Amino acid sequence: MKKSLLLFVAMVTGMVANAQYENAKQVFNSPKLQEAVKTHKLVAILPFEVKMTYKKQPRDFDLETNREKEREKAYSIQSSIYTFLLRKASKYTVEFQDVEKTNVLLKKAGMTDKLGEFTKDEIAKALNVDAVIAGKFEAEQSKSEAGAIVTTVLFGGMGSKTGSGALTMMVNDGPSGDLLWRFFKSMNDDVFSSSDELIDRMMRKVSRNFPYTK
């Protein structure tokens, strides 16, 4: 009985901590934001910078394979954001450049996989857009998927989190390159998460603060 009570208390404490972590967010609005967005008509979404780490590195960990996963996630998040915004296009004051066109133009400009070497105004000029949406996703896996599935079966979903992450989304003005808006959100990641689910969760939080919302 005592062990069961201690286990229950531990699970509840973990759930409360996870909920607090999930709710952590920060929003920055530049004093130039309101005037700048009035001039924006076309906005590009860039592949996100992705960093995936492990609390306990897997035995079969391969650095190159992990880098490829990060690259795939970068484009997956880009695509998910574009899809989300496209579904709600009527709610926004701007249009968003097709991400396939964005990536082709980045390749022609020699910027693919080297975005950190260019300023945001240089990128916007290459894409011929008024602003760019960029960001970073950092995730740490703390439990194997198999372990999380076992926990889900035993406890009905409590404690099935496999890791945690933080997602930052930014809007930079095209002509000046200035940072106009920044949104940071920490979140939990489970075995059933995908880029679409990740972005859907984040964008629901962003919606009230997103600078292009009518």
UniProtKB/TrEMBL annotation:
Presence of keyword Signal: yes
Keywords tagged on the record: Signal
Protein name listed in UniProt: DUF4136 domain-containing protein
Annotated signal peptide: 1-19
Organism: Pedobacter steynii
